[in-house]
Amino acid sequence: MKRVLVTGGNGFLGKSLCSRLKKNKDYHVIPLAGKSQWDLTKQRYVDYALKEFEPDIVVHLAARVGGIGANKENPGLFMYENLAMGMNLIESCRKYEKLEKFVMVALFALIPNLQQSPSRKMIFGMDIPRKQMLHMELQRRLLQNS
């Protein structure tokens, strides 16, 4: 039986994934509680979670989210925490010798900038999103290419 650790297990995607995985007898699902218990922005919590639960598979779904308004007001905080969680998990999983698979899902809300200029600007091969969403696209691309 494979032990599957799911970060963000109580979130929108995490609940659904955990529910589906629990129906499969081949998996023992370990939904990781939220930031109040497991602050994944801190490397020691990530290292301890791997040591404590000894997963074969890690699925990283945890994220700092809050909608367009919160993103607009706190872009630096959201970007920092999401990048920190992703990088900490990548590093801990790299060092963890028993891990068979690491899956990281990075979602973002891309609202295209409807004001087109004659010379369309591109960033990482994509149209530049609205200013308040740019940090989300950047963090997704940075973690995707890690």
Summarize the structure.
The chain has helices spanning 12-22, 43-53, 67-73, 75-95, 134-144, and strands at 2-7, 27-31, 57-60, 101-104, 122-123, 126-127.
Report Rg: 17 Å
Span between N and C termini?
A: 29 Å
Give the number of domains: 1
By CATH reckoning, the class would read Alpha Beta
Estimated structural class: alpha/beta
- DSSP helical segment count: 5
CATH topology: Rossmann fold
Q: What is the second-level CATH architecture?
A: 3-Layer(aba) Sandwich
How big a fraction of the residues is strand?
15-25%
Number of strands: 6
Strands ordered across the widest β-sheet: 2-1-3-4
CATH superfamily membership, which one?
NAD(P)-binding Rossmann-like Domain
Q: Using the alpha-carbon principal axes, give the shape.
A: globular
Helicity, as a percent range: 40-55%
How are helices and strands ordered from N to C?
EHEHEHHEEEH
**What profile does the largest beta sheet have?**
4 strands, parallel
Low-pLDDT segments: 113-124
| Arithmetic mean pLDDT | 81
Q: Would you give an account of this structure?
A:
With 146 residues, the chain is α/β, with parallel strands linked by helices. The protein has one domain: Rossmann fold (3-Layer(aba) Sandwich), CATH 3.40.50. The chain is 42% helix and 16% strand. The protein has five helices and six strands; from the N terminus they run βαβαβααβββα. The strands form two sheets. A four-stranded parallel sheet has the order 2-1-3-4, sandwiched between helices. The chain is globular.
